[in-house]
Specification:
Number of strands: 28
CATH architecture of the largest domain: 3-Layer(aba) Sandwich
CATH class of the largest domain: Alpha Beta
Strand order of the largest sheet: 20-19-21-26-25-27-28
Largest sheet: 7 strands, mixed
Radius of gyration: 25 Å
Distance between the termini: 41 Å
Number of domains: 4
Shape: globular
Low-confidence stretches: 1-37
Strand content: 15-25%
Mean pLDDT: 93
Oligomer: single chain
CATH topology of the largest domain: Rossmann fold
């Protein structure tokens, strides 16, 4: 059994053995794949590119040292173990995936192995000194998404450890670097302060899973990096600033709009803010309608009003093509009656003008000095997706129409009296005042002109009636689309998940072959692009605790995967919206031969409805979409029937026969089907 808490680098071989055992028994679609003993049709990776060969003697020496250091690190009884493991993972990945692009890069492995050795000796001896040091350092934390260790760069002010004060935190998101994998990121962070070093502030450089635009697991990575710094250093959480440039600027637009609660101010530099206009797509070149709908999850203009909750100062070089992002957002602000603060570097291309950057930092410093207000008079929530629909004490729990403009404007009209104006909202959740939250409402509020008397419980649930009136209810329907449980398929990979592989065989050789090839593609893609190891278990090893703790990503079919068989048995807490027999997958009124098709889907787990179950899919953006971070968005909705008459490719897992979104109550809806 694979231990979930084991070192992710050291357990890579164990994880691979599960998949390889499947692959060894199958026949593939074509040539041998890039890795693993499989004849699946190869799908070349774009990121990171394959680099130069390592001399055999040097490689042998490195592997010997790493084995010894990993053995020692595995015995460390210390919270600092991740600070060692992150260095060893960087070296092992660089060797395994050939992430060396010049001979000087070989020296980086020697450097990190020496550093890992020194850190191990310190932990085993008198104690670690680096966590208390000032200046540049690199540390590691374990991701809750997959348990992998991820690097984080820090720049700490002088004498921070002797000062009886908390410090502002500036979060800097890096630009795109196809070759800047863990090894190179760590060395850069050890050698360079970075673009900004505000006086008296702590600066954190999240890795963000390298090159996925700080989306998907990358957005969780940024939030966890912030949490890591706040746990370990004296950070004033009311004074956290978000900045970045290029891909990092796109990340700032995204995170400020979707996670603005964390930040006192944001400053995106260049980057992109949406998909279609950035890609210069004419309507006749648009993808299928469901993909256009899925753009709205990350396209920032649909979240514009969230950016009114705290200051945003955009930057563009005067001659930079990526000024387009700020122009788009200027239009979005203007459409809502606001003006975007936009600083432009005179004569500059794709870089900062030093004087303009100084101006921006001075503007941000004024906001930092004030900090976030404890009790703001107004709150704005605008969303196209339930995951991103909360602000302080107010959460949009449901929308009348999915993926449409959904918003709440809340304004204080008395000491604890608030007036709420909604659009496309069906359910609201209000957290009432407490010692930790004195700014929330109490007594009576006004929602869309309807007075509502709040309950005396810790929270109040409001349901919209068909006539538009609002009423307090005791509970919402258990099976419903809501924050953290709304689809599409990709939504599962922002949170902790467990991949469950089949212990049995499929009755269809074609299904068996597709499952093995796509599972291996998922595993390798998670390693090379998402920079982590999948939590994996065979179906016979899954425990009740696993079902409670994780979204389950099930591969195969009910005949081969016993957990999937339980999910579709009809004996769970609810009945899935897709039916299956030995002969067919049934979605709505349509049937698809089970020996010629596979189902990819997401819905609440009937065995644990607070979690997802995902069927036969990893993240749905694939290798072809890695050419630009603006395409690293969901490409399939809640469910899809995949025909095996077309092999998996860099663009899709096969021919999409039918696909769609489930309804708000997680049922098949013909109006949401293509």
């Amino acid at each position: 059994m694979i231990q979930l808490n084991s070192n992710p680098v050291r357990r890579a071989a164990a994880i691979a053995s599960i998949v390889i055992s499947l692959l060894a028994t199958t026949r593939g679609f074509g040539q041998q794949a890039e890795v693993g003993p499989t004849d699946c049709r190869p799908i070349p990776r774009l990121i990171p590119p394959v680099g130069i060969e390592v001399p055999k003697r040097r490689r042998t020496d490195w592997l010997s040292k790493m084995d010894s250091l990993e053995l020692a690190a595995g015995k460390l009884d210390s919270q600092l173990e991740a600070d060692v493991a992150v260095l060893l993972k960087a070296c092992r990945y660089a060797i395994e995936f050939r992430e060396f692009y010049r001979e000087k890069d070989f020296d980086k492995v020697d450097r990190l192995l020496q550093l890992a050795g020194r850190r191990t000796e310190e932990i085993q001896g008198a104690g670690a000194t680096w966590p208390q040091a000032a200046g540049r350092q690199v540390r590691g934390f374990r991701s809750r998404v997959d348990g992998s260790v991820q690097p984080v760069g820090l720049v700490l002010p002088e004498n921070w450890q002797t000062q009886d004060t908390s410090h502002p935190l500036y979060v800097w998101l890096h630009g795109r670097g196809d070759k800047v994998t863990d090894l190179h990121f760590i060395c850069d962070r050890l050698d360079k302060d970075g673009q900004i070093v505000p006086e008296g502030a702590i600066v954190v450089h999240p890795f963000g899973r390298q090159c996925i635009g700080f989306k998907s697991a990358g957005e969780t990575d940024v939030m966890e990096a912030i949490d890591f710094v706040c746990r370990n250093y004296p950070v004033d959480e009311r004074r956290i600033v978000l900045m970045g440039f290029s891909m990092g600027g796109a990340g700032v637009w995204h995170l400020a709009a979707h996670y603005g609660e964390r930040f006192v101010a944001a400053s995106p530099g260049a980057g992109f803010a949406e998909t279609a206009r950035y890609q210069r797509l004419a309507p006749e070149k648009f993808p299928p309608k469901y993909e256009q709908i899925l753009w709205s999850i990350y396209d920032v203009p649909g979240y514009t009003r969230n950016l009114f909750n705290s200051p945003v100062v955009a930057y563009s070089g005067e001659k930079d093509k990526q000024i387009q992002a700020a122009r788009v957002m200027e239009e979005a602000f203007e459409a809502e009656g606001r003006e975007l603060m936009h600083q432009i570097g005179p004569g500059m291309g794709h870089k900062y003008h030093p004087d303009t950057l100084k101006t921006i930092l001075a503007q941000l410093a004024q906001v930092v000095e004030q900090g976030k207000p404890q009790s703001p008079e107004r709150l704005f929530i605008q969303s196209r997706h339930p995951r991103y629909s909360a602000r302080r004490w107010l959460t949009i729990d449901g929308a009348v129409k999915q993926y449409h403009d959904t918003r709440v404007d809340a304004e204080r009209t008395g000491h604890s009296r608030w007036t709420l104006k909604t659009k496309n909202v069906s359910r609201l959740r209000l957290v009432l005042p407490s010692a930790e939250n004195s700014s929330g409402p109490s007594g009576e509020i006004l929602v869309d002109g309807h007075p509502v008397e709040l309950s005396s419980d810790a929270e109040t649930l409001l349901q919209r009636g068909e006539d538009g009136s609002w009423h307090v209810v005791d509970h919402f329907a258990k099976i419903r689309k809501r924050p953290g449980l709304s689809g599409p398929i990709d939504d599962a990979f922002v949170d902790p998940f467990l991949v469950v592989t089949p212990s049995g065989s499929s009755s269809s050789p074609e299904v068996e072959r597709w499952t093995a090839c796509e599972l291996e593609n998922f595993r390798q893609r998670w390693r090379t692009l998402f920079r982590g190891e999948l939590r994996m278990k065979e179906d016979v090893e899954v425990t009740a605790q696993d079902i409670r703790d994780y979204h389950l990503v099930l591969w195969g079919e009910p005949s081969s995967n016993r957990v999937m068989r339980h999910v579709f048995s009809g004996r769970g807490q609810w009945t899935p919206p897709v039916r299956v027999t030995k002969e067919h997958w049934k979605v709505g009124d349509s049937e698809h031969a089970a020996d010629k098709h596979v189902l990819a889907a997401i819905f609440p787990n009937p065995l644990a409805p607070e979690k997802y179950v995902v069927i036969n899919s990893g993240p749905t953006f694939r290798q072809a979409h890695d050419r630009t971070n603006s395409l690293q968005n969901p490409h399939l909705p809640d469910w899809a029937i995949i025909s095996l008459d077309e092999p998996p490719s860099a663009e899709r897992p096969g021919r999409v026969v039918s696909t769609g979104f489930f309804s708000d109550s997680w049922q098949y809806d013909s109006n949401l089907t293509w």
